[in-house]
Structure formats: structure tokens, C-alpha cells
Amino acid sequence: MEEYRRIADRVEAAVRDGRLRPGDRLPPQRVFARRHGIANSTAIRVYGELARRGLVVGEVGRGTFVRAAPPLPGPALAEATGAAPVDLQLNYPAAEGQSELMARALTALARPDVLAEAVSRPAAATGTPEAREAAVTVLARPGWAPDPDGVLFAGNARQAIAAALSALVPPGGRLGVEALTYPLVKAVAERLGIRLVPLALDGEGARPDALEATHRAAPLAAVYLQPTLHNPLSTTAGEERRAELAALLRRLDLTAVEDTTWAFLAPDAPAPLAAHAPERVLLVDSLSKRLAPGLTVGYVVAPVRLRTAVADALRSGAWTAGGLALAAATRWTGDGTVAEAVALKRADTRARHALLLRRLAGQTLRASPQGYYCWWELPASWRAETFTAAAAARAGVAVTPGSAFAVGPGTAPDAVRLGLASPPHAVLDEALARLAAVAADG
Question: Per the confidence metrics, is the pTM higher than 0.85?
């Protein structure tokens, strides 16, 4: 075996047996080379091998730090924490009793004649008249309801976003996004060859002056915004901010994709941006968070001038909803299942928020009692990547570092997002307590 690999093995062993802990800083490569009696070039290869194995992370201007070791066969994290890993990266709400609620519609769909109708042919991007009317019921907000003829159907919210962006932004085009944005948008943009341009934020989301200055410096093809319960910051724009953004979209001749996937949790939020500028906004949403991600549909509410382009994007991307999912969604809306599940989850967010505030009291948190996530600005002793590694290795809890949400190089904050939706309450409570202990041990 080559010398650099043997040395990398020794370092890995030190990580696995705890002599090197997540967050520990390795010496500069020249110092490492002197300590091990090797050439600088060999030390460079050792550090490269450690990074390839996922054992270390390099931070420009700061050095190289130990991450969590890759999992060994068996419950490796359980050995460190005495409990199974808790995933606070994924964020799928599951209120008690929702499966029983959903089963009612599925029982009806099991009838051979109903099932045959649902699966006999692919669903069109425009769905059915019944599905569009049901979608209006789901998407309507105080002061606004979509035009049923403008509702198009995707397999889920991700596909709805992909179709909207594909219809608006050509490959190589520029898309304005909040400087901290939903990571999926970053992935979709990369796939579509779209360049993301960060927009400065304040307490209500993207700043109109930043949007205007960015567009005038180099034109944007479109903008993606989350005005209600922004993910990850939980901010909600007020009525005045939405009206200002709508006027700006008209003045700049821009179209926005408004993501309202989490907005159902905030019934008192202002009407969507689409209510202020319906001809300038593509609104995207889905049933994934209201019900469950395994059998869902996504929605795109498109103005007349863009309906054909979005429908074409849904078809060409194979992003249209499945017939069975569309039939189930229509029934779940009509029989009250969606409304009941939404009520359960609105109550659930408040209970989880209370756990968060109790366990992380004194920390710098950005969260809403109506939201299922929290933005945690870490204590000064921690960097986001090293805290993420330490949380996994020491506490058995997976969190998402701020870099996953940051747009543009050198903008990643020392913060993590906690997804509060998925674990049972008792498990979430214990996970938050463990994270607080890790933060205090920094």
C-alpha cells in the first residue's frame, strides 16, 4: 500500500476510536509532514485521501477539520449516543391519525370501476375539471382563489418548481433567488443550466431594492420567492411588501415563481403575491406537506400567457401527476381529509415549537410557531460544518448546515436548519436536548 494511504488509515483509526473528535482541527500540511517525517507532497495526498473518505472538511482561511466518520456496519451512531440516529434534515409532517383519514379515500378508489378510471390512461397536465375545482379548494386563501382553468398538475412540488423554471428561464439564464433559499431550487437550477443570482434579505424576505438593483445590473429571466414561511428562515412578508414586489415585477417586466408549499400552516398570512400580480406570478404548491409525500400531487397556477409553456414543460419533463394520485387528491379534498389534516398539523407546529424553545433556550433562533423548521445561528465557538459533524457523531442527530441553503460562494453562514416535522414529539425533545449539549461543549 502506498505510504499516504497507510498514514490516512492511521488518522481514520484515530477518528473512529475517538482520539480525534469531530470539530478537531488538523495541523497545517507542512507541520503534519514534519511530524510524520514525510514530504509535503505526501502530506497533501494524505489530506486529499481523508477528504475523499469523508473524514475531514477544509475551510478556506481556517484549516482542515475532522468530520464524522463514515458509518461502520451496524448502528455506529447508537454506540456513541445510546440511541438510534434522529434525522432533522428531512421534514415530512405526519400528524397523529392522518393515515386513518387518508384511508377513507383509498378504500373508495379500490373499487374496480373507480380504479380502472384512475389508471386507464395518463393524466394530462390540465388534470380533470373535478381535479381543478378540488385544487381551487386546497389553494384558496382569504382574499384570493385561483382561476380553475389556470391550475396545472405535477407529480409533486419539486416537479412543479422544475416545470415553472423550465418554462421561464432558458439554459444559461439568470434566476434571482433569496440569498438563502430552498436547496432543491439549487439542484433544479443546476440540472437545467440556470444561473442563480442571490438577492439580499431582510426580516420580510427578498428586498425590493436588491431585486431592482440586481436586475438593472444584468437582467434576470425570472425570480423565485417564498413570501410565506420562508424555508429556512420562517419569515413572512407583510401586505405592503407583497404589493411593493408586485409593482416592481410589473415595472421590470419580470415573472416570479411563488412557492407556497408551507403557506397552509399560516392561515393568517396575507394573500399570496399571485393575488397582487396574477399576470406576473406562477404559484407552485403541493399536497406533500398537507398529507404525505408518498402519494401526492403538485400544483402550478399559471397566468393565461404562460399556461401552454408550463403544460409543455410538464409533459416534456415527464413531470405530470399520476392518474391514481390525482384521483386520490380529488377525493381527499372533497371528503374533508385535507382540511382535517391541515388542522392537525397547525396544532402540531405549536407543540413542536414549544419543545424547541424549551430545549434551546438562550440560543439565537429564527423560527415561527406556525412553521416546521428552525434556523439556528450557532454560538461563536462553532462553524456550521463542524457542528453538523459533531451533532451526528456525538448526539446521533442529523442537521443541515447553512451552506446547503446559501447561494453564491463565500456566503455560507455558521448556522444550521433543524427540521422539526418528522420525529415523534418525545424523540424530537430528546434530540433537541442532545443538540443543546453539543452546542454547550463547543
Answer: no
